[in-house]
């Protein structure tokens, strides 16, 4: 007697109950699940007319097996032999059942459309009355029966192992990728510049400004900045009042990193043309990634034009949010989040899904391996932690201005609440501190001077003014000024080392 998979115990039990004492000698049993060809699954035949429950059970097994087979196609098993079931990539194609009055008959399955399967359906009594029954069974038929019976256990184990593996991948998410920059031995160490930054910020609060007017300042906005008219506007306005030449890069932030890198390179060359002044760059979020890519890809053309780079809250190592949305097997895969993002970015905001793909860990690892930042470039990275207190839920950001005939009305959004919710999610799932979108360890650029303020600041605070700013705290423009002042000091130290 051939062994069968316990998955079909319930079916066999129903068969015994339904046909006990009713099978006729020589009765031919048809497959429970239709023997289709190719990938098409036939509907189950109505074999048990007097027992509708058995037909429903067979239909359920057909649908469930087809569903699992479609999602775990990797569970296919191949056996050698020309006459055997060569390919088991379609586990739902054929199910054959034999039943006897004593209930000792097996359930066997053949899963290959072209495979030969044993169709013997005699009861033990009829088999005993036919001495030649055993002798007429060929070795090939016996081999088929053994292989198809064993397949039940193998495919069942493989399919559910695939289910377990996918669940584990989902649970792990980006846990193995977060902070990979700090674990890579080839990356240069970072230097802590928090104390120096705090001293500069304190001086700015007392009216001491040290930014030189002999350089140009270029602010590079991040993702979706084209749809926030006030992105970096407050900082640019205050820099201009201090007599500094400050510009906001007019790039399509929803484009790919390499496309924006080329546009930033052209923007820098246009600013430097005829002025004989170098440029200090400050990029926020994806803007820092775009600016860094421009310097990595076009350094020979820009090394005499750029004095340094600040990356503020930039996912230099990658973003768990982007990765979990786009990576196969992650949370986004269960609701087809990639398709939703493609529609939103391409159709709604006229962008490129590659802008989000370039922030995943796989893309960042590949890009940084091929295009690292120049070692002689002065670099400062700024990372923060968002507040998850109830007060953050009441924070509104001023993102636009509504022009009315007689007045202007501020357009506000609860970005602080959104950042607090995302920061709480990353804290609970990965145990990582973040500004709501970028984890602290992924914003730390190797080889840079790192600023880690104790003050709780979310990802949107740097570029959009809040309606409930603390009067005694520095605003975003003052923080940007302090970061650029620190960058000037780092650049001077680098220059002395090179000289």
UniProtKB/TrEMBL annotation:
- Bias (Polar residues) ranges: 117-142
Going by the entry's taxonomy, the superkingdom of the source organism is recorded as Eukaryota
Enumerate the InterPro entries for this protein: AB_hydrolase_fold
Transmembrane ranges? none
Q: Where is this region: Disordered?
A: 92-142
Put simply, this protein is called: Alpha/beta-Hydrolases superfamily protein
The organism of origin for this protein: Brassica oleracea var. oleracea
